Structures are given as structure tokens and as C-alpha cells.
């Protein structure tokens, strides 16, 4: 341990705790996408060395305690209830645009992947470049256009899952699984070509008399999957959470050589003067913590906002990061801001036992009247 004075070290620890979310955001890119490659490090030795440093332990412990204290304080004091009620009401107005948001979030990076020649993830290239290009461009463009949306989502999902056993690196782009599954349940929504076609096919038009597909296939399928649309927030939430946990653990904590190479490449220790080990462990634990909170569905909109912050700091902090590959993550985080946690979540459990923001506003308004 060095000879710095205790007050100075305490002040530095406090500053790092306050900047930990932004700190993790700068290092939150997929390490595989930006890493110049680093010397292999023994994981157990690296983690033991990082966690045996009292300063590192103080920063990480204070960060965890700060998060728990913030959650407990919110549940106790319930501040900003009117703001939350208005925000949730505004988000609810965007629910009909959720299919469009998800289609953009998946279609754009797939088109980019097709033109760039990689398969879902920039780290995965298959042995059939023509197929990869046609697959990405076709599926991505038709999702953007909203034509045959459910079929294209299913095709994309099958393609991803079929390639996964032979290319486990595709787990770097695992967010495509919940995104494509959600699109398959929601359909094209509006605006989309599917919406226009359905209006033509359901009315007394010439097209309705010659379309053999709409009434015999499309309508029965929609009626069958419609009861499962309520699962979309759950699918998106758990899928995004698992992506965070996987990236935090495998790309940071279990891959310290490449992760510290990223810290060195961007000179991140000059941004916040802590050791590279703290950068790596802090980023990995923050991502894993955000992912865990999303999986259990606790404070989902707040966790989604933190996720959005991490992606944004990565976007502006790492100049050569493949931004297009992160659009799907931006879209899923934005979708959760709209939907909230959905069922099977801590948020749903709390909503049954505590007063909602809207109910609080109504009660206070009635009391004031």
C-alpha cells in the first residue's frame, strides 16, 4: 500500500464511486470488437490481485452500497412521483410504435452486417460471404420495410440459432434473440408494409379477392400468437439482462488480458486515475449488476436508462467502436423504457403492494382539492 494520506485516498475513492457508471460505460463496448489483443492473464490471479487491494475494495463496496441505498431511499421516500406519473403516461403513448422501434433496431444493423460481410456480430464471418451478405441485407431490409415481418423475424432467429453451435462467438450479439422473438410476436405494427396490406386485404377491395394468404394464414396466425404479446416486455428484459451479464463476465472479468489492453489503448487511466484492474473489474461488475437487475425486473426503467447511458458513453468515448453493432442494444433499452418490466418481475410484485405514481398523484390532488 502506498504512502498517500488517508483523506486524499478517501476523496479519490468518493470521486470514483460518483463516476463509476460513466467509467464502466467507457469500457462497456464489446472488448472483442475494439481490443488490439493483450497478453493472456490468469483470471484467478488477476481477480485476486484486484480484489485484495483495499482501495479497490472500498470503491467497489461503496458503489454497491450506494446503489442499494438509492433503491431503499426511493422505496422509502418515493420522490418525484408526479414526474414519474407524467413520464410513464408519455411512454404509454408510444406503445403502438414499439414494433417499429424494434424493427429499426434490428433491421439497420442487419443491413449493415450484410454490406460489411459479417454475420450478426462483427466478430463472426462465415465461409459463405455471398450468403452472409444476402441474408443480412434481405432480412434487414424487409424488417425495415415491414413486409413479411413475422416471417423475416423467424428467419433471422433460425439463422442465428442454427449458426450458434458452430460459432459460439455469436453470443456477443445475443440481444438479437429477444429482439427477433419480440418482433415475431408483435408483427410489423405501423408504419409498415404489412399494415397497409392488411388494410387492403380486410376491406372490400380487388386485392382482398385475389390475396390467398391474408385470411387463410395471416389472420389465424395472429389470433394464435396474440395472447402471448404480453410476454414481449419479459422477453426483451430478460434477453437484454442476459446479454449484459454475459458481456460483463466473459468480456471483462474472464478476459482480463484483452480488457486491460482496451484500457491501455484508450488511456482510460488518464480519465479517472485508478488502476487498470479497477477499470476492468468495475466495468465487468457494473454490467453484470445492471443485467441482473434487468433479469429480475427491479427498477426496470431506471436500469434501462443506465444501460442507455453506458451505450452512449461508449458511442462518444471509443472512436473506433463499431457503433452499428450496438444499435440493437440501444433499441432494446429504449423498448423497456416504453414497456416497463412486464410480468414476472420485482416491479410487478411491488406494484401490487405499493401505491403507483399515478395513484399517488390522484390521492394528493384529491387531498389538495
From TrEMBL:
Q: Single GO cellular component annotation?
A: plasma membrane
- Is Lyase found in the keyword set? no
**Keywords associated with the record:** Cell membrane, Membrane, Transmembrane, Transmembrane helix
Tell where it localizes.
Answer: Cell membrane
Q: Which InterPro entries match?
A: DoxX, DoxX-like_oxidoreductase
Query: Where is this protein chiefly located?
Result: membrane
Segments spanning the bilayer are 55-77, 97-120, 132-163, 170-189, 230-249, 288-311, 323-346
| One Pfam family hit | DoxX
Record membrane topology: Multi-pass membrane protein
Any keyword Phosphoprotein? no
Q: What is the protein's name according to its record?
A: DoxX family protein
Instruction: Look up and give the organism this protein is from.
Output: Halobellus ruber
